[in-house]
Amino acid sequence: MIPPAFDDLKRLSVVSFYEDAFRKATGVPLKVAPAGEPSQRLDFGPGENPLCALLSGTPGGCSGCLESQRRLLRSAGKGLVPQQVSCFAGLTDLAVPVVIGGEHRATLLSGQCFRRQPTERDFKLVLKMLGPGGGADGEQKLRQAYFATLVVTAERFEAILQMLAVFGQYLAEQVSRQAIACTEHEPEAVASAKQFVQSHAEEPITLEQVVSHVHVSRFYFCKLFKKATGMTLTEYVARVRIEKAKTLLSDPSLRISEVVFASGFGSIPQFNSVFKQHVGMPPTEFRASLRSVSRSAAS
After folding, report:
1. Do 14 and 125 fall into the same domain?
2. Mean of the pLDDT values across residues 204-210?
3. Which pLDDT belongs to residue 3?
């Protein structure tokens, strides 16, 4: 399957809004970055920690920041779970992967904070690692930014992590729904096929049925549908059923077996396999995450 592009995610208006709101609410920056290791240091923009901005302007600091970011993104992409690293200056950076269609498509980067109160000795060690070159004026600016950096308690850090996880899940949901929705400018045969699948998702669906419904040849339809959606019909059907299953899983009164058949899957093992492939976690874990989000919202 061709997963949704990072550009599609970045174009969502909620991204820039949440990046700004998150920084104002928590005191730490947030950047939605593409998956994969960066070739150069990722800049957080105007909301970046002033200390990190200063350090990135020094040769040693820039290379150290880049190495930390690469290590962080590498770990997030490998495990597909939230990761944290401590950079050479003692700041903690966070990465929460955004999994869409079973693929790591983006990463929420945050942190740039201390987990404990820094000391004069800590600052001297950072200066030593940076080496000479800043002068007295540069050292004074670094000192001010260093000791002004936010110190985050364990409880607050956990809350920040939960907020990132919720937003990451929300982004994945938005892009997934966007991928299966009908659009204004797609070919009529594609729109008609999508509507047919969405109306019959809980039933067995074959390519022959869809081709007959849209009144075009099999070869032409397959080529047209793939070009318009980036998916085969089989992949699209699976995505529609997964989205329906996710909605059903939000109802705690439904058993997993009921969700399986109501969303059109033929067996529980097949459902578990396809669900984990597309969502990045088993259905039971997804349901638990929904409950966690509800509890966080209530509190």
Report:
1. yes
2. 95
3. 42
